[in-house]
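Because showing beats explaining, we think one record worth quoting, sequence and backbone structure tokens together, and here it is:
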Amino acid sequence: MMRFKEQEKEAKKEAFRKYLESCGALDCLTKVLVALYEQNDKPSSALEFIQQKLGGPSVSDYEKLQAEKSDLQIKYNELFAKHQETLRELDGVKSLHSRNSSKDDEDREAIEDEHTALVAPPHH
């Protein structure tokens, strides 16, 4: 029973190794590790060296990007709030315009009624 589990475990490891090899990951990682090994002056951070060689940002670049993202989020939030405020103001102007148009229509109708009453001959 124990022997079967060991064989199953080894088969999974082999399948994973083949997967890494077939997609080029094993070769890529090997090249990066060889480059690190061949460095005369070893970098202070092996992990950062590996990340850079794999195309990732350095820690300082990552921190700069995080700060920039944070600043942009703040700016976005401010602009969005201003946009919402502008929309509320626009709705207020539209509402006021609508009320004034209705009042103008009522005034116009009252003047027309008064004019009609003055011009029309009286009914006997």
In short: Residues 59-119 form the longest helix (61 residues).
